[in-house]
Write a structure and sequence with these properties.
- The chain is of the alpha/beta class and 360 residues long.
- It has helices spanning 14-25, 46-50, 68-78, 92-97, 99-119, 156-175, 197-209, 230-242, 259-269, 325-330, 339-359; strands spanning 5-9, 29-34, 58-62, 82-85, 127-133, 178-184, 187-188, 216-218, 224-225, 228-229, 248-251, 257-258, 273-277, 284-289, 303-307.
- The strands form 4 sheets. Strands 3-2-1-4-5-6-11 form a 7-stranded parallel sheet, with helices on both faces. The chain has a 4-stranded mixed sheet with strand order 8-15-14-13. A two-stranded parallel ribbon has the order 7-10.
- Strand 13 and strand 14 (284-289) form a beta hairpin.
- Helix 7 packs parallel to helix 9.
- It is globular.
Length: 360
């Protein structure tokens, strides 16, 4: 039996780790690219190494999207059936601080990977998936964003991803490559980086619960987002490459919530009621009721949420919600995890993590 071979860039990230698990369960041989680092950065995939059933089916290689020679060497040796480009400088706020680096990795990195496939004469064999983003829509041109909605990126991150989106389509049309874009709306999990707002919230609240912090500082709590679970979304990434032709698909839950709602629901899950007061930068959230015996670090009227101008972006995207009807119809996909299940999983994980942190 011949096993399919997949190559994943960004394998040490949230999406890469879930996708690796998914493909291995599908009997793929999975190869991943990771950058050389002086510190260990494989925590999200260490459990895969520990699984004896994946022995000789999971391989890591050093490489860099900005080093085209390393990409060409790897692709020529592996000859993957599928390539999933999940690597990126993916933090929108950071992209304003590092616009050049963000643009190089996200734009030229994607180009280097596509051209490596072409240079290795695998354009007719290897399927390519590009992880695109709802941030492409930016300044909203349509109430629900679909594959036909005009793009209006509002950050260096989104602009760099727009190049990656179009260069993927260009290689599809120029070289008849099976090259597809998945326009993913926000997708979270316990493996999300701690600087991203959902994980920042669940981790921050967990630290407050265990007395490791007093207050959580946030930016625009009125931003509206379409949040799903990364585990559901990587299945969709795979389905995109199993479709009978290359195409572009919006991946979304089609439901929308504010950052403020996310905060409230995290506290509600713990049986803690908070009250909001003030406006603008002076808005804050305080505890008005909970089981104070259970949560000994909390006190009535304790302010646990404050707003900081530090966390506002120079160019805010306030309102994103996807129209995933095309994916639902053609790929027979729908998300399995709702917002409350997502919050439960993230809170449970971070509460346990901070409990152990406190014991150290």
């Amino acid at each position: 039996m011949k096993f399919k071979k997949a190559l994943i860039t960004g394998i040490t990230g949230q999406d890469g780790s879930y996708l690796a698990e998914f493909l291995l369960k599908k009997k793929y041989i999975v190869h991943g690219i990771k950058r050389k680092s002086s510190s260990f950065n494989t925590s999200r995939i260490d459990h895969i190494y520990a699984n004896k059933s994946f022995k000789n089916k999971f391989f890591l290689h050093y490489g860099d999207l900005l080093d085209p020679n390393s990409l060409t060497d790897l692709i020529s040796k592996i000859k993957p059936d599928e390539v999933y480009n999940l690597a990126a400088q993916s933090h929108v706020g950071v992209s304003f601080q590092l616009p050049n680096y963000t643009s190089q990795v996200n734009s030229i990195g994607t180009l280097n990977l596509l051209h490596a496939i072409y240079d290795c004469r695998l354009a007719s064999k290897t399927k390519f998936y590009q992880a695109s983003t709802s941030e492409l829509y930016g300044e909203i041109q349509e109430s629900r964003q679909s594959e036909k909605t005009s793009f209006y990126p509002k950050s260096p991150y989104a602009t760099s991803k727009l190049f990656a989106y179009w260069i993927t389509k260009n290689y599809r049309e120029s070289y008849k490559m099976f090259a597809s874009n998945g326009i993913l709306f926000n997708h979270e999990s316990p493996r999300r980086g701690e600087t991203f707002v959902t994980r920042k919230i669940t981790m921050g609240i967990s630290k407050i619960i265990h007395g490791l912090e007093k207050c959580l500082y946030l930016g625009n709590i009125y931003s509206l987002r379409d949040w799903g679970h990364a585990r559901d979304y990587v299945e969709m990434c795979w389905k995109v490459l199993q479709y009978n032709k290359p195409d572009d698909f919006v991946i979304a839950t089609e439901k929308q919530y504010s950052v403020k709602f996310f905060v409230e629901q995290c506290f509600k899950y713990l049986g803690i009621k908070i009250k909001w007061s003030g406006t603008g930068l002076k808005e804050y959230g305080k505890i008005i009721n909970c089981n104070f015996e259970k949560y000994s670090s909390l006190k009535k009227n304790m302010v646990v949420i404050k707003i900081s101008n530090k966390y506002f972006r120079p160019n805010e995207v306030n309102n994103l919600i996807g129209n995933a009807s095309k994916a639902k119809k053609l790929l027979k996909w729908k998300p399995k995890t709702n917002i409350h299940q997502l919050i439960k999983e993230m809170m449970d994980t971070d509460l346990e993590y901070t409990r152990k942190l406190k014991l150290k």
